[in-house]
Amino acid sequence: MGRAAALTSVLIWGVQFSVLAAALRQLDAYHFSSLRFVLGALVIAIVLVWREGRAALRFDGRLLAATGYGAAGFAAFSILLIVALGYTSPQNVALVAATSPILTQLLRWALDGVRPHPAILALAVVALFGLALVITKGHLAGFGAFGFGDLMALGAALGWSIFTYGAGKFPSWSPLRYTTLTMIGGAAVTLAVTVLADVTGLAHLPTLTAVWAVTPHLVYVAVIGSVVAALVWTVAVRSLGATTAVLFMNLVPIIALLVAVTTGARLGGVELLGAAVTVAALLGAAAVHRRATAPARAAAQQIPVRSEA
């Protein structure tokens, strides 16, 4: 059950990169992100009320914190990701986004003083080397020309890492409640950024024809990608545990690569090698983290035996 749920989630997210790339040809990143999260927040809020009651929609004095993490995980992540897709390929964006688990570890080190395992840092360097092979197609001498799209993708990955880091700051909230309330805050920030983009000329109000053209993409990303996949992912995490479930996240770039191939993309040997190196490093980092936390998990699972009087 848990493995099937995890595979379902990563399959949805892997395909999502190509869906976003197609939508970008019709609608700009700002308005698509606003429509996506307004719709997604509405749907997931209904689910939250159904599962936990209307009281679960209260922020309990943590409105600013929830909005901040939502802005990073939804507004910044979505806008930067879609902007990145306008400058680089979906598979490149997927590979950069796959560094989020490692970035989260580094973030915890910087903010909480929780130092990651030395092997994880070493594997992070290996993963970045693999990314460099993919991005430069093996011409590492030209790495100085690191593209704008790749930089935006890295910013998006950092935004998702901040969102993931924030989940640990709300221990009394269920995963569904945390996702819902931060998505509401993220949707509000995305709308504000979109209005600012319209006013400054960075974006323009789309026509109804343009919005209608991306309706299938919007439904997939907002409802299936943002709501269904997130809820199924929660089932996977509760069934397998977060440490084991996160291993499946590293399959997202593999799925994105396979989708790119089926749609006509031609990948060179160096790009495939770089992808393999990156994914192997990410899997290795997750394995090291699992082994490092095994004693604590084993101790937590021990149930003391109570004697009957």
Task: Provide the fold topology.
Elements: H1 2-24, H2 29-52, H3 63-85, H4 90-97, H5 100-112, H6 118-136, H7 148-167, H8 175-200, H9 208-213, H10 215-240, H11 242-245, H12 252-262, H13 269-301
Description:
The protein is mainly α and 309 residues long. It has 13 helices and no strands.
Can I get a quick summary?
By secondary structure, this protein is an all-alpha fold.
Determine the strand fraction and express it as a percent band: under 5%
Question: Which term fits the overall shape?
Answer: globular
**What's the helix count?**
13
Q: Which series of helices and strands comes N to C?
A: HHHHHHHHHHHHH
Rounded mean pLDDT score: 80
Structural Rg: 20 Å
Amount of helix: over 70%
Distance between the termini: 40 Å
- Could you name the ranges where pLDDT drops below 50 across 5 or more consecutive residues? 305-309
How many strands appear in the DSSP assignment? Answer: 0
Q: Main attributes?
A:
single chain; 309 residues; mainly alpha; 13 helices; globular; disordered C terminus
